[in-house]
Amino acid sequence: xxxxxxxxxxxxxxxxxxxxxxxxxxxxxxxxxxxxxxxxxxxxxxxxxxxxxxxxxxxxxxxxxxxxxxxxxxxxxxxxxxxxxxxxxxxxxxxxxxxxxxxxxxxxxxxxxxxxxxxxxxxxxxxxxxxxxxxxxxxxxxxxxxxxxxxxxxxxxxxxxxxxxxxxxxxxxxxxxxxxxxxxxx
Length: 186
Description:
Helix content is about 25%, strand content about 30%. The protein contains five helices and ten strands. The strands form two sheets. Strands 1-2-4-9-10 form a five-stranded mixed beta sheet, with no helix packed on it. Strands 3-6-5-7-8 form a five-stranded mixed beta sheet. The longest helix has 15 residues, at about 125-140. Mean pLDDT is about 85; it is low at about 1-5 and about 75-80.
């Protein structure tokens, strides 16, 4: 894969987070971001899942945001659409960390999302499938999960401080939930 291919799914929605007085980047569905400079990495999740993976000794890490575990038979060869799937999103994040000098034996993960934010919607069980996928994938890769906040009925906003490994999760209130629900329906 060429470096230009990574750019298509590498989150570059930079801003200054006033709450934490920190440079930050937003990660949208199908994107990921790796930070070696301590940048705050932020995403909002419904049934999607985000994995925050870091090298605990080197002090840097990244986050992905995927919508489905895998594409099955219909997996697209287009990188941008492939990043929507956990199998690709996990691989690209881990490979980018290793390319920057992370040591596989020092990697640890924190995983979030997989909620059922559409009340009564159980078709496809997307949230539970995403949650199980990320746990199975990390077990297969022998990357320990040191924290998780999976499943449930609520959407979440995740703040990942990649240089320290600290993660803060904010449950999204009902009045702000419609935007997440609209995205889930699409």
